[in-house]
Design brief:
Layout: H1 2-24, E1 28-30, H2 42-53, E2 58-60, E3 63-66, E4 82-83, E5 87-90, E6 104-105, E7 115-120, E8 141-142, E9 146-150, E10 220-224, E11 232-235, E12 238-240, E13 243-245, E14 252-255, E15 260-263, E16 269-271, E17 274-276, E18 284-286, E19 289-291, E20 298-303, E21 306-311, E22 319-321, E23 344-346, H3 353-356, E24 380-381, E25 385-388, E26 407-408, E27 417-422, E28 437-438, E29 442-446, H4 459-462, E30 476-479, H5 484-489, E31 517-519, E32 522-524, E33 536-537, E34 540-541, E35 558-560, E36 563-565, E37 570-574, E38 577-583, E39 589-591, H6 602-642, E40 659-660, E41 666-674, E42 678-685, E43 694-701, H7 715-721, E44 731-735, E45 740-745, H8 752-758, H9 765-784, E46 797-801, E47 804-807, H10 812-816, H11 837-842, H12 847-862, H13 877-882, H14 895-904, H15 915-926, H16 980-984, H17 988-995, H18 997-1002, H19 1011-1018, H20 1049-1069, H21 1086-1092
Parallel strand pairs: 1-2, 2-4, 3-5, 4-6, 5-7, 6-8, 7-9, 22-23, 23-24, 24-26, 25-27, 26-28, 27-29, 29-30, 40-44
Antiparallel strand pairs: 10-11, 12-13, 14-15, 16-17, 18-19, 20-21, 31-32, 33-34, 35-36, 37-38, 38-39, 41-42, 42-43, 43-45, 44-45, 46-47
Biased composition (Polar residues): 970-981, 1012-1029
InterPro entries: Egfr_JX_dom, Furin-like_Cys-rich_dom, Furin_repeat, GF_recep_IV, Growth_fac_rcpt_cys_sf, Kinase-like_dom_sf, Prot_kinase_dom, Protein_kinase_ATP_BS
Pfam family, one: Furin-like
Length: 1102
């Protein structure tokens, strides 16, 4: 039993190897495209077919078998495995077609543009012979097209075939008992192999069994023997040495180390459905494919023995479409002008009776023989070259109109032939004097009663050797022409100067090669050196006759030194200047005298030079003045349009600065970004009636709810247009419409967030603190004008210069939702991480909720652009804030700066500082930046723990563990997050709150007298660092706070000592982190949450 298994395994292995070898060494042959038409007798057709398809495995084209008798032997078709076009079996009498190995019909071309398999009228009329079985026992797939089987009188088993398993989407005798399903015939070896309809649902294509694990590879077509891409019967796309691949190895591959495209040593070209290392000789390489002709914008060139399609340097050689299509069957008087100046014919050339003598039914007149001289420019025919002439002008005795034809590619053949000349009574010689190569196909010359010289041609010399082995023999079928003996008797022989390779006609210019020498395509007896003519001997160059113009014995025109020239040099640049010469009587060029000025007086030359200089200077001055005038007019226009003027004549009292713009005045250039409320573009504003182009930023507001229209100017738009402050982005204009467009100043330096991320290593404390001051002042200006921002973040702060920032995107939410003061958001674009807790929970937006966002913005700046709560999803942030967690202290901040942020994040909005207080606080800090921000020199600095966004709450320390550093202006070494418990106790500011907490919570606070300022005023004896009026002047003209002028060393020492005493007071009071004292003030107390989450003005704390 073991031995039997080994034998079976060996058989399977040999079968697989045989199949692999068959795939890697395919024998390819060309198909036909004759449809139902035939040429010649039945025997001629059969002979041609047998020669074309014997041993063939892949038919590159169509397989057409028509009008064959019942006794013909078609066993030579058994080797065909694949047909790329269609199969036509029509009007035959044989009983069975032995295409047993055929597995796939690709259907790249379809019969009647519909069918990939057509079996028509295959029976003998009034006889007993006809097609009984198709014999396609291994056909498993038709990629494109359908099946047509009609009028086959004796065909019985076709309806038994499951065509749904073969094609993509067609009363008979029963099949043999051995067949479990459909069949192709009556025998037990004609059972149909099913590879599609029996597959498991998991298989996307074909299969080799019913199990889910028995699916064919996705690149297989027609079935397989295993799951690998080498087990396919045929390939769906390309066959690469036995493996089915989606595409052949490309000629260029990307090198990820050098970041360049480099030649692929394993590159192959696409030839039909096969990957080949070299294209056939009769094909040309275009990129990574073998094509029959180059596209119109490329020309065919040969490099290193390979024909390639290369882009034309200028105008491409004219390539014309040949004949053979239904609308262009022959060359006639109506289409012959389309061949003027053609150098290449893409296709075929047919000369038929209807073209030569005319076609009265189609109103086509007879062809003028002189018109045929148009074809003298043709040098190459890429398709099949057919001269199937039933009539030819009697005045023409040869085919000399094709005297310049050099190559017949033969990329498509007519029954294996690429040159056919037949039945031309007046033809005495071929006259194809320049024809030197027939790349593919045979020669068929017959029925020309007067034709001579054809028997002298060495036809095998014209067939070029291919780098790819060709199976088909080159047929030379020259018969039934004038006998050679008769031609010799009549003197129709080659010229004596021709070699033994033959000639195309009489005369020395019709030789295939010369016996002695050749000059201009004509054979000569000797080389005439004295005439200087260029000659060659047997295609070998004669060097003595190929030298330049300096070797001539006698010059035809003039001589300049040793060279023959057509004219003497005039004004040619030489080593010592311009050279002028004149011809003497001996026709030699002599130099002009040194004082000669080429016949022109010196005064004229000087005046001409001066005129040119003056005109050049005038043009230059005028262009400079013109450009300067344009620049001045542009500046005046921009100043006029950017000046402050009312938006509407009736709104002069409101000082509205923006304008009403029209849609046609705005041009969007580039998308800068998108956000919650819409998108922003870089664009230009071209005022109506003017040509000035003003660069602006265009913000398009989109209302995703569909509740708002912006066709009218609202009060809120007027309010936004009236704002003008150095720290906010000014609104230049409003463009109403379906989508509101706001036109603002264009910031070329981008947002503050991008700037601090990109230049983090070069930022200094002074600049950071001044930016905080400027943002606070800008927000205070918005607060004075009752404008709530709702979306304050570092990304919405723009840089006007390196030292000045401006706030943008203010008031947009009020434009969208002016009634309910709400806007809807999604998880991706909503600024939840910047929003106050009352805004998240109750959607209440006030200036104090903007203070919360201001604190997050300052945290972004101090963390060099880190994302807040980066490790958390937006929906998790409200729960984190309710638990009392806050963003951690940035590494560069001291406790003073950090506590300002913490005050901005207080739950009670009335306890948060106002923007005026924040501006004053950061102004004070900006006067001594190193005391509040500690920035060390970083080398390859990376974000610290501040980028984590938050840290979990930690238990408080008891009194014995609390140790405060000697100086308050130092960094907080603890990395813990400030929770609401630490907001209430354990810091300097918390002591201020603890003195009068109950009273501060019971009374209503105004924005001008916030809890933050009240707490600072209660500690005025300890901290008297609020800026005094005389220190407000310590700013430059742009509002930039100057450092080091407001604090003296003595004042700093006093503050340190007073702060140290304050810290000891805190320790003695026993109010430490986590102390139970002050329970009402603890945000960890659930009762506090119920009573003091959001205090109303009339709420009283108990």
């Amino acid at each position: 039993m073991t031995g039997l298994r080994q034998v079976l395994a060996l058989c399977v292995t040999l079968t697989w190897l045989q199949f692999t070898c068959a795939q890697t060494q395919e024998v390819i042959c060309s198909g036909t495209q004759n449809a139902l038409s035939v040429t010649g007798s039945s025997q001629t057709q059969y002979t041609l077919m047998k020669d074309m398809y014997s041993g063939c495995e892949i038919v590159m084209g169509n397989l057409e078998i028509t009008m064959m008798e019942h006794w013909r032997d078609f066993t030579f078709l058994q080797s065909i495995r694949e047909v790329t076009g269609y199969i036509l079996i029509a009007i035959n009498q044989f009983s069975r077609l032995p295409l047993d190995q055929l597995r796939i019909i690709r259907g790249t071309t379809l019969f009647e543009e519909r069918f990939a398999l057509a079996v028509l009228v295959n029976y003998q009329k009034d006889g007993q012979h006809g097609l009984e079985e198709l014999g396609l026992t291994h056909l498993t797939e038709i990629l494109e097209g359908g099946v047509q089987i009609v009028q086959n009188k004796f065909l019985s088993y076709t309806p038994q075939v499951n065509w749904l398993d073969i094609v993509k989407d067609g009363a008979s005798e029963p099949c043999d008992e051995a067949c479990a399903g459909p069949c192709w015939g009556s025998r037990n070896d004609t059972c149909q192999i099913l590879t599609k309809t029996v597959c498991a649902p998991q298989c996307n294509g074909r299969c080799f069994g019913r199990s889910p694990s028995e699916c064919c590879h996705m690149e297989c077509a027609g079935g397989c023997t295993g799951p690998l891409d080498t087990d396919c019967f045929a390939c769906r796309n390309f066959n690469n040495s036995g493996s089915c691949v989606p595409q052949c190895p490309q000629t260029l591959i990307y090198n990820k180390h050098t970041f360049k495209l480099e030649p692929n040593p394993s590159a192959k070209y696409q030839y039909g459905s096969i990957c080949v290392a070299q294209c056939p000789t009769n094909f040309v390489v275009d990129g990574s494919s073998c094509v029959s002709s180059c596209p119109p914008y490329k020309t065919e060139v040969e490099k290193k023995g390979v024909k390639r399609c290369e882009p034309c340097g200028g105008l491409c050689p004219k390539a014309c479409q040949g004949t053979g299509t239904p609308s262009r069957q022959t060359v006639d008087s109506q289409n012959i002008d389309s061949f003027i100046n053609c150098t290449k014919i893409q296709g075929s050339l047919h000369f038929l009776v209807t073209g030569i003598k005319g076609d009265p039914y189609n109103n086509i007149t007879a062809l003028d023989p002189e018109k045929l001289k148009i074809f003298r420019t043709v040098r190459e025919i890429t398709g099949m070259y057919i001269l199937s002439i039933q009539s030819w002008p009697e005045t023409l005795t040869d085919l000399s109109v094709f005297s310049n034809l050099t190559t017949i590619q033969g990329r498509t053949l007519y029954r294996g032939y690429s040159l056919l000349v037949m039945r031309i009574p007046s033809l005495t010689s071929l006259g194809l004097r320049s024809l030197r190569r027939i790349n593919d196909g045979g020669v068929y010359i017959t029925g020309n009663r007067k034709l001579c010289y054809h028997h002298t041609v060495n036809w095998t010399r014209l067939f070029s050797s291919s780098s790819r082995p060709q199976r088909r023999q080159k047929n030379i079928d020259v018969k039934e022409n004038r006998l050679q003996s008769q031609c010799v008797e009549e003197g129709h022989m080659c010229d004596p100067l021709c070699s033994l390779e033959g000639c195309w006609g009489p005369g020395p210019d019709q030789c295939l090669s010369c016996k002695d020498y050749s000059r201009g395509g004509t054979c000569v007896h000797q080389c005439r050196f004295l005439t200087g003519s260029v000659v060659s001997h047997n295609n070998v160059s004669i060097l003595s006759c190929r030298f330049g113009a300096n070797k001539c014995v006698v010059c035809a025109s003039l001589r300049d030194g040793p060279h023959c020239v057509s004219s003497c040099p005039e004004g040619v640049m030489g080593e010592k200047g311009l050279i002028f010469k004149y011809p003497n009587q001996q026709r030699r060029c002599e130099p002009c005298h040194l004082n000669c000025t080429q016949g022109q007086p010196i005064i004229g030359i000087v005046l001409g030079v001066l005129a040119v200089v003056i005109v050049g200077i005038s043009i230059f001055v005028m262009s400079v003045l013109y450009r300067r005038g344009l620049a001045i007019r542009r500046k005046r226009a921009m100043r006029r349009y950017l000046s402050l003027e009312p938006l509407d004549p009736g709104e002069k009292g409101a000082k509205v600065h923006a304008r009403i713009l029209k849609v046609r005045e705005l041009r969007k250039i580039k998308l800068l970004g998108t956000g919650v409320f819409g998108s922003i573009h870089k664009g230009i504003w071209i005022p109506e009636g003017d040509s000035v182009k003003i660069p602006v930023a265009i913000k398009t507001i989109h209302d995703r709810t569909g509740r708002q229209t912006f066709h009218e100017i609202t009060d809120h738009m007027l309010a936004m247009g009236s704002l003008d402050h150095q720290y906010i982005v000014r609104l230049l204009g409003v463009c109403p419409g379906a989508s509101l467009q706001l036109v603002t100043q264009l910031s070329t330096q981008g947002s503050l967030l991008e700037h601090i991320r990109h230049y983090r290593d070069s930022l200094d404390p002074q600049r950071l603190l001044n930016w905080c001051v400027q943002i606070a002042k800008g927000m205070y200006y918005l607060e004075e004008h009752r404008m709530v921002h709702r979306n304050l973040a570092a990304r919405n702060v723009l840089l006007k210069s390196d030292y000045m920032v401006q706030i943008s995107d203010y008031g947009i939410a009020d434009l969208l939702y002016p009634d309910d003061k709400k806007y809807f958001y999604n998880e991706v674009k909503t600024p939840i991480k910047w929003m106050a807790l009352e805004s998240i929970l109750f959607r209440r937006y006030t200036h104090q909720s903007d203070v919360w966002s201001y604190g997050v913005t300052v945290w972004e700046m101090m963390s060099y652009g880190a994302e807040p709560y980066s490790t958390m999803r937006p929906q998790e942030v409200p729960d984190l804030l309710e638990k009392g967690e806050r963003l951690s202290q940035p590494h560069i901040c001291t406790i003073d700066v950090y506590m300002v942020m913490v005050k901005c994040w207080m739950i009670d909005e009335n306890v948060r500082p106002t923007f005026k207080e924040l501006a004053n606080e950061f102004t004070r800090m900006a006067r001594d930046p190193p005391r509040y921000l500690v920035i060390k020199v970083r080398h390859n600095a990376t974000p610290g723990s501040s980028q984590a966004g938050y840290l979990p709450m930690t238990p408080g320390l008891d009194n014995s563990q609390m140790v405060w550093p000697p100086a308050s202006r130092s960094r907080l070494n603890s990395a813990r997050t400030v929770s609401e418990s630490s907001e209430g106790r354990g810091t300097l500011v918390e002591l201020e709150m603890s003195e009068d907490l109950a009273g501060s919570l019971q009374r209503k606070r105004h924005r001008e007298d916030s809890a933050y300022m009240s707490q600072r005023d209660s500690m005025s004896g300890v901290l008297s660092e609020t800026p005094s009026p005389d220190t407000e002047g310590e700013e430059d003209q742009n509002g930039y706070v100057l450092p080091g002028l407001g604090d003296s060393p003595e004042r700093g020492d006093t503050i340190d000592r007073s702060r140290k005493q304050t810290y000891h007071t805190i320790l003695r009071a026993g109010v430490g982190v986590g102390e139970p004292g002050g329970g009402d003030c603890s945000f960890d107390n659930p009762d506090y949450w119920q009573s003091r989450l959001f205090l109303k003005p009339n709420t009283v704390s108990t």
